[in-house]
Amino acid sequence: HCERTSSPPVHPSGNYFRDGQTKIGNVEGAQEESRSERRKAQLAQWRDKFIQNLQSAGLLMEKEESSSVKKAIHYLKLHAPWDVLVYYAEELCLRAPLQAQPQPDFNTSAQVLQKLWVPNIMKDSVPNRPVDYYTCAFRKSKMEKFLGSDDRENYFTNTQRHRIVYEILARTVYGRRKRAEVGVARLLNEGAFTGAFPLHEGPFELPGCDMQPDKLNKRQVLYHYWSNWLKWYKYQPLDHIREYFGEKIALYFAWLGFYTAWLLPAALVGTCVFVSGILTMGSNTPAKEICESGGLYLMCPLCENCKPWNISDICPMVGYLFDHPGTVFFSVFMSLWAVTFLEYWKRKNATLAHHWDCMDFHEEEEPPRPEFSAMAPAMEENPVTGVKEPYFPEKARISRMLTGSMVIVIMVRPTGVVRVLLSEAVTIKLQINLIYLVSPNKTLPETFFPTEMHRTQTQYEDAFTFKVFIFQFVNFYSSPFYVAFFKGRFVGYPGHYGTLFGMRNEDCGSGGCLIELAEQLCIIMVGKQLINNVQEFVIPKIKAWRQKRALSSVKKAQKAEQPKCWEQDYELIPCEGLFDEYLEIVLQFGFITIFVAAFPLAPLFALLNNWVEVRLDAYKFVCEYRRPVAERAQHIGVWFIILEALSHVSVIVNAFLIAFTSDFLPRLLYQYKFNNDLHGYVNFTLAYSPPSYNYSSHTVCRYKAFRDENGKYTLVYWELLAVRLGFIIAFEHVVFFVLRVIDWMVPDIPESLELKIKRERYLAKQALADNQEALLVNEAIPGNKK
């Protein structure tokens, strides 16, 4: 209990006003600190006007205070009465239940195992599963048609109440509307309030062992059956997640779980390819020749201050693990895997969107953003709904969008140049890869996007996500691209080395550029992911400790009292959204598809990381974050478009990687023209240093190139170039053709779902149709016509 009173009784969850009957829709906290008097007066004026306008909007509120000698924290508990809920439910197009229906099972693996009569250890009996309904848009005039409409206390779910209250908070003006002084989000940024959040539904700690599972609150159910590390192999309770956190967060976890499950076949095939390289390593003739050559091949120095070296000093057996015919097969497999995964995710997403009543949310139901409404200079009719809405001229929006885009372009160019220069200058490979362990701050680009005036929150987030991802793409992928396609390409030859800013261009190491790329990917997929998981585990705990320490003086002053639920939730850290979570996994998807030819074990390490990632994120949302406002969403947004783009880029990159960075095609050409067993291949790939260089250095050395003694390209070089270009064209055309076939064969919406949608539309028409037949009969009676 949050408060102990004799009359009236307090509701067990504690999320009620003092009367024990009025539900709290939201809580706001204001903290008085030392500021300039003028600033404090401005914030107080904004707060007072904001609270006054909230009362005018129909919200009920109650104030609480926690204070000490040094600090006072004021809480404002908000509640939306029935009339306000009904009004905004219709305006926000909330879904209303028409008829209960059986709970479907969306797990394909569960359906397959059930048909095969195989026990499913991944299935878990989670209590209190939400009921599934046929639904339609809420209408006040049709209230009697909806199930449970006579129970005002429980008709609207807690997440619907939170959404309505937060919508009012987002729309309420506190200053001048033309300055966009609207909404609680800006007041939080200004410092007028220190928090605005819905309350968790009780503690997450489990009660005694004798507690019945169906008696647990929703948060305890999620803690025990979802965020528990012992449940790592169980299905996620997606319906419970959606009921507690909303569709947007539930879709993220559904996508993350779906992607993790699809990583399993990719990891198995990649491991088999790697193992096949180990088993056939002993039959690698070029590697044997190098290891047994002794001092036969004296290689030219790799840098200005380096000395000549013997090729036998390196035994390239390890390089064969990442550069053998199996990697070509795996590149094709991963390209097909990526597109097939995305096609089946579209089916899964459509099924979940319909199941959660948000299939037409973005097109028909999503309201304009409060900032857009406040700044829009005109009103125009929505072509879909026919309702007049705020409108921003297209020309003005395009100019604002171009301004934001140019900022990203300006930031991306120096980022790529700096990363390439770092790779040029730093010689220790570990230091080169440390650039991946630091994630750049996204606050700088975020400041430019609110001026673009996107109509809906989804459009704003998609534009923001796409532009920041372009920045992050260059930031994370520039060094692998440099190593794969630029490093060692502009070196020149002995006596005529290429230079940049007076320094000799960097050459690949003795093992080749593909080995360096594999080392980078190994550090990224193992080291970076491990550090990220440690950070995700430690940083929230440090933030929570700092938050509790900042409030320790207030807690000491009231140590005799039991802390109230809103005080406990205020000690938690604010939820920062899903951007960082999506970004981490999407970047991982890029690494395991774009550069998979260099590191076949990447899907395996991604799978291990994601098993941990699911439980880490679940624990953060249930135990360490303040409860976020439940948001609706139809799909994962622009992230899906980014994933599709990465899957297509991966086909092109892997084709060039095999053609120009791998030794697969040179070996194939040598087998075809000279020797099928690859005897003499090492000598075939090495050129002699020019006589002018030999005279100055007094040493004849070899270097890897197809040049004659004068440094001119040989006929073999041009033949190999033609083979490489032909391979790229053939690889891309074959793979893209198969991808289009897969896209055509797998429909975006399952046939069973299409039938279900038609059934629901029929029921909605029957439930909400006016009694047209009665009107026609009434008009047909003589004397009733005017």
TrEMBL record:
Q: Where is this region: Disordered?
A: 1-21
UniProt keyword annotations, A-Z? Cell membrane, Glycoprotein, Membrane, Transmembrane, Transmembrane helix
Residues folding into a coiled coil are none
Q: Which residues form the Anoctamin transmembrane domain?
A: 241-760
| KW Glycoprotein (keyword) present | yes
The membrane topology of this protein is:
Multi-pass membrane protein
Please provide, in alphabetical order, the Gene Ontology terms of the cellular component aspect for this entry.
plasma membrane
Q: What is this protein called?
A: Anoctamin
Taxonomic lineage of the native organism? Eukaryota, Metazoa, Chordata, Craniata, Vertebrata
Family designation:
Belongs to the anoctamin family.
Which domain of life, per UniProt? Eukaryota
Q: What is its main location?
A: membrane
Residue intervals passing through the bilayer? 249-279, 326-345, 585-608, 636-660, 715-739
